Structure formats: structure tokens, C-alpha cells
User: Fold this.
Amino acid sequence: MRSLRPTLFKAAMTFLGWAVALLLFFPILWTVLTSFKSEVEAIAFPPAFWPSGWTLENYFEVQERSEYFGHFLNSVALSLGSTVIGMLIAIPAAWSMAFQPAASTRHVLMWMLSTKMMPAVGALVPVFLIFKSAGLLDTLPGITLIVLVGNLPIMVWMLYTYFKEIPADILEACRMDGATVWKELVHVLLPMSLPGVASTMLLNIILAWNEAFWTLSLTAVKAAPLSAFIASYSSPQGLFWAKLSAASTLAIVPILIIGWISQKQLVRGLTFGAVK
Amino acid sequence: MRKSIMALGVALALGTVAPAASAEEIVIATVNNGDMIIMQKLSKEFEEKTGIKLRWVVLEENTLRERLAADIATKAGQYDVISVNSYQTLLWAKMGWLTKLDDFSADYDYDDFITATRDSLSVDGVMYGAPFYGESLITFYRKDLFEKAGIEMPAKPTMDDIAGFAEKITDRENGINGICLRGKPGWGENTPLITTFVSALGGEWFDMEWKPRLTSEPWREALTWYLDVMKKAGPAGAATNGYNENRVLFSSGKCGMWIDATVTAGYLLDPKESQVSETTGFAPFPITDKNPDAAGWSGAWALAIPTSVTDNATAAKKFIEWATSKEYARLVGEREGWLLAPSGTRKSTYAAAEYQQVAEPFADKVLAAISAVNPTKPTVNEVPYTGAGFIDIPEFQALGTTVGQNIAAALTGARTLDEVLEESQIYVERTMERAGYYKK
Amino acid sequence: MSGYRMKRAARLALAPSVALLIVGMIVPLATTLWLSFRYYNLMNPALGGFAGLSNYEFFLTDPAFAQAIVNTILLVGGVLAITVAGGILLGLLFDQPMWGRGMARLLVIAPFFVMPTVSALVWKNMLMHPGYGIFAWVAMKLGLSPVEWLSNHPLLSIILIVAWQWLPFATLIFLTALQSLDHEQQEAARMDGAGPLDRLVYIILPHLGRAITVVILMETIFILAIFAEIFVTTSGGPGYASTNLPYLIYVQALMQFDVGAASAGAIIAVVLANIVAIFAIRLAGRNLTA
Assistant:
């Protein structure tokens, strides 16, 4: 009896947990399944759950029409570029605020966050004009810069909350040993806060990959990432469900796989100081 | 394009340098409709023949319009060839933002274009947009359903006829809606359709002083008819159905009638896309006794070149000349099937035996529908604007969007007809006032 | 190293971030502010000149303005309510022993990786479509008539889509927080006869306080600026039923091309956002930076 109850409980939780998980995952699963159907099957009603033919036709057509690989590379460059440069800028800032706080630190931090609250649409025309005169329209550096600016507050904040949890005396001690600020950062702080740093990088990669407002407004062909590519498949004429599903799958699968592989690292640091 | 030092600096930091634009590479920004997707496919021929490389930016219509507006108004010159409709062509040509397309070779044969289509893209007789299709409105209907209900489509149906038929053939148990009409809000979606119905009932947007007339009797009548017929015979979720959605509904056999763009005729007869290819019939846009001349709208999708494009203008012209030529129309016919040949643009297409053979059920009707529209006199009363289905002022896009939204709200039942017309009237007046139309 | 030099190093380290954000935010903000006092219409170059406060007046008297504010609040509030409540429940659920927990958790977090445009397109076309969507099919199976989600419940539909995207984030944060909960303390409470509800109210929820703050703050930042989901699904309609503040500004700027009025709208949005930010500082500042 005593050993049965936990088992029963576990079984119930398993059932409930998996039911919820499948429900939440269903839209993605459905998209992937639909991408292998023919267009007619894709809108069949009542829906055909399992593709009958497992056709790859939609993928071929999407590839033929939109040079998927170029957009993919742009997405990779944009995500990695903005993340690496962002970390180089954000780590020193977070270190400074966490270990050498000034009276203004809290305000600076909140000011940084508040910059994210300005609706991007409001700044679109000014930014477009600035980009135009700087020759940054449809360039990777341009789009990387704007995505970087957009995500920097989140990076700084996330790193800051993580650094805060590291006892300051450890850094203090190594400083007593005569280590320079640089050494302190690289040899002590970073190894200790590796989970937080990894998590920040991953979150930023995800946010940059999925950024869809600036990429759509400021790139055309040369620098357009996957989030711009998907706009070609939004309500075209005729039957498009299967092609839309194929394009969607192509756009989300890379980041989904990265997210899944690295989810342990992502989760470990994704606390924003919520866990003491 | 000029590159700033800043851009280069960041580029080096990233380890990537964007390739320099070559004069022989042109960027085409286009809407993701069927004709353009075919053009993209076939343009490999053009690339091989001329050595000019084409880069395509294919976008959903609203996104495209937003991008083009920002690009052309700031003279950013990101796109060498753009796809625009009649409204944009006329407006932007008048502002000097589009390049004249009047120096193509003799083979191009400007006179071969259907006059109404060419006129809808020309200012003072000069063409600024080369059409890849032209259109008006037509009534598509299901001959099998009409037969089953024991009714017959008259040669010139009236709006009352249509409403009666719609109710009769509706069979919701079996998923048949008597009629599908655009409900999705937008100046390129429900608004032009409603505008055309208003015009058929003798109404107009503005009087000669640019005072809005949205609370006038024809608007009330048109909307009453529209809301009533959609309630009794329209599909579920009609307020989100635009052209594309209705095309899917009709071709999958869920609509008894559909009043929409003539360009669709070929697709509906194509068994690859349509399940009703055997049973679709064609009738003119419905009329009333208030304006027997009403005949739908005039519109075209065209290719144009912004004046901000200089380096690539020659290559861009070369492409447009090819993509809207007789030779191209023939190429589409041979490769993709003559049903899909560019509709409503060239008389020679309609004269071609191959086209006549497959397009016989609709070709004459489409040609008649397009030719019947007179955009310079779209209404019964005298008005200060031209355009059938749209108004050739910069503000129309804003007006059409908001009025369309209001109509959609009435369609869902969230608002009453009176509220909607009243709010629209106030909104239009406010916008026109701000744009300076009422200054003494 | 002296304290003075340390401070200098700290300021130096902070400088690039602050500089970049100043350039990246203040320059567009200043341009926007300037434009908000000018007549500037993209499609009407003839208009121009100093506009005084008329852009602000025009934006504030827009019939859609009040509703856009209400919708923005409903959108943020609705998504927060669903994701916080749902996230805590899911966090509790996935903290329990179960078979294949790691795998199930992977499925739960997946929506967070999907780009907003894609999720909006998928929900609109394949789930909520009254003719071909899965929801319509489920309704039919249950003997109900299909719900016209986007036409009749536009704001609710958008709330659902956005909540689906953010629920994984909330779940993850709460789950991490729950895992740090002292299990002995829980056990002790159980021994003392505290029921599950008591434990939730007196032990678990207080423990989650900081996590709830974080979720609210992070999500508010992103949801205040929701745009793509509305653009793709309802275009703000029918009427203004799903127009939020960013979408209204977008309509001004790129559908009406009235950059002057749109800039005024953007400035108003910044002011409102800062009011929210002040509240957020009060709420989060106490909890997080202390």
C-alpha cells in the first residue's frame, strides 16, 4: 500500500504532464506534419492528422522560390554577431554595476530597461532615415547593430542579476592578491558565472533569431534573415497552408534544436535573480 | 550605394562584408500573388539570355506596400523594380517618383494593351507602370448549384437577383454558402468592393467640396444589402476573408457565388488548383437601376521603376520590357498553361487561338468587364476625383483602411450600421480637414 | 588597486553599454521628438513646417486612441494573468515526479523558440480558422458551431496566441524557483498537517514572490510592444477591437503616412511606458536590486 500510492501518484502526474505538454506542443507538431502534406490534404476538413504521402514537394518549392540557405546564414550571422558583440559590451557593464555599484546604479539599470518600452514602430521612420544616410539599409552590420541595441538592456540585466549572486569577497580576495581588473573578470568572475553567461547568450540568440520588426523593415535581399523570409508566405494566393508550414518549419527548426540541446544551460541561468 | 565608414567598421568586426552591388544585378520587390510567382519562375530565361541577375523580395501585400512607401518617399532606392497597383502608379507618377516607361522597342507594341488597363497606369498618356495583369469585377457562380435550385443566372443580374439567388442556394448543412464576399478590412480588400456597390447604387465618397457622403442613402443601401446577404448566405468568419481566403473557399466548393477580380477566372478553371473547374460559370458585376453603367472597378498590377534608381535603370527597364511583352505572355501559356496567361493586359493574348481554346468560357466576359469601366466617371453624380474602386488622392489609403475596419466591425455584429457610417463620416472629415482640403 | 582607480575602471566598463544605448535610443528619440512638432507626411511632401502641438492634438483626439490604451492594458493584463497563473500551475506540475519528465519539459518550452510571426500565422490559419482550423473541428466534434475567433473575439485571440508564446518562459522561471524550495520545510509542514492548499498559500507562493516579479517585469516589457501578432492576424480590427498603442502608431506612420502624428504618438507611448517603468522600478527595485 505504501509503495503503491507514490506509483499511482507518479502515473497520474505523468498522464497530466504529458497531456499538457502535448497540448502546448501541438501547434508546432501540427505545422511540421502539415508541411509534409499536399496542399489539398492540408486544408482537408475534417483534418487528416497524418500526411498520407509524406511529400517533400513543399520544401522544394520553398527552396526554389526563396534561396533559403542565404536567409539562414544571415540569421546565423545576425544572432551570433549581435550576441558576441553584445556580450563584450554587457559583461563589463554588468560587472561594474554588480561589484562597484554607485548611487545611480539602480536608476541606470531601470533606465536601460525602460528604453525597451518605447514602441519600435514609433522610431521606424527616424531610424529608416538614419540608416539610409549612413548606408546601413539592407546590410548585416546595420541590422546587427539595431538588434544589438534592442537586446542589450536584457543582457545587462540578466548578467547583473547573476553576478549579484557571486559573493563579492571572492573577487575582493583575488584583488588582494594583486590581480588586475581584467584578470579578475576573465579568470575568476566568468568561470564562476558560466551558467549565467551561457544562459544570457542563448536567450539573446533566441531573441535575435526571432526579431521580426526591424529585420522586415530594414533589410531587403542581401541581409534579410529568416524572420523576413517568412513574410513571403503570409497569405499568398491560392492554397498555401502546406507551403506556409514548410517555410515555418524551416524558419523555426534550427533555433528549436539549439534551444532543446542547450535547454539545461538556458534554464540554469534564466532566473533573473528570482532564485536566491 | 554609398557605404559609410561606420558600416565598414562594423562589417569588418563581424568578419563579413556585404557584396558590392553590381550594375548587372537588380532587386525586384513584389507581391506574393500567383502571377508574380510564375514570373519569378520563368525569369530564369531572362537571366540566362541577358546575364542580368535578378534578386527577388517577395512579400505579402500589406507588408510590401509599407516597405515600398518608406522606400520611395525617402528615395532610399533599395528596389530597382517594384510592383504597384493603379492607385500607387497614378499617385506616385504625379509626384515624380516613377520613371517613364515610354521608350520600349517597337516590338513591345504599346497599342496592344487593353485601353482601360493602360489608362489606369498612365498620366497624360505616358505609361509609368507596365501591367502584368489588369482586372475588373465579375460574378463567379456554380452552375451545378444553380441547376439544382432550379434557377438561372440572367445575362445582366441585378443586386436584388444576386441576394435572392444567394439565399436559395445556401446549404449550410453541407457547407455551401450562397455567396462569398470580401470582409477583410483594408483599402485593397473590402473597401473597394463596397465602394463599387455604393457606386452601383448611385453613390459616391465625396461631393465637389470634398465633403464626405458616407451617411448618404446609397451607402446605407449598399451596406444594408451587403450585411444582409452576408448574414443570410455568407461564410463563417467572413470579416477575416479577403481575396485570397475567398479564392480558397470558392475553389474548394464552399461558395455558390463570389463577386471578385476577373484575374481569378483562369485559376478557377484550372483543375490543379480548383475543385470546381467543371462547374464554374461567369456573369457580369451586378447592376441596379440607379446606375446601370456601373461595371465594377478598374485596376491593374504593374511593374515600375522608382526615379531614385539610376545605375540599374537600364537593366530594370530591360526586365520590365521582357516581363510584360507579348513574348512573355506566350511563354506563360506554353510553360504554365494558357489559362494562367496574363489576364486583362494584352489584346494579342485574347486573340491567340491557344488562349481562346481554353479561356473561351470567360475570355470575352473578362474583356467586356474590363472595358466597361470608366474610371474618369465612376459615379452618377459629379465628383472631384477619378478612379473606380479607389480615389486618386494620397489620403485614400488611410480612409480606405479605417472605413474598411468599420465595415468589418459591422459585419461581425460588433457595431450597428448607423454607428459605423456615422463614425466613418466623422473620421473621413477629420482626415480631410487635417490634409488641408477645407482651407479657404 | 586603489578605490579611486577601481571606481574609474567600473565607470569605464559601464561606458560602452550606456553610450551605445544613448546613441541607439536617444538619437531616434530626439529625431522622433523633433518630428512630432513638424508636419511631415511621407506621401504629401508639399506639407511641412512647424506644427506646434497639433500632431499631439490629432493623435490624442483620434477616436481609436482611448480604445488602443484600453486594449494595450487588456493585452498585457490578460497575458500576464494567464502566464503567471498557468506558469505556476505548470511549474508545480513539472516539479512532481513523472516518467519522461525531461522530454515532456522539452515539449512545453518549445513555443518560446517560435518566432512571433510564425506562431501568429500558424494560429490564424491552422488553428483558429473557422473553416479549416483544428479548433473548428474540435467544436464540431463537441457538437458546437465553430467559433469565429479572429472576427468575433479578436483581442482574446491575440491574448491566447501571445500567452502561448510566453507560458513556457513563465513556467521555466517558476520551475527553477520551485526546485530551490526547501523540501524539508515542505515535508515538515506536511507532517504538521498542512494540506496542499495551505502549503501553496503559506510556503510556495511567498517563495515565488521574486519569480513572479521577474516574470511580470520581463513580460510587460515585451508585451507592451506587441506588434507582429496583431499585424499578421487581425490588422487591429474589426474596427479598433484589437488595436493597441504600437499598432495605432504604425497605422499613423505607414498606413496614413502621417509621420508627424505617428511621432507624437510614439512620444506619448514613451511617456506612458515610463509611467509603467516607474511602477516597475518600485515593484522590482525593492524585490530585485535590494
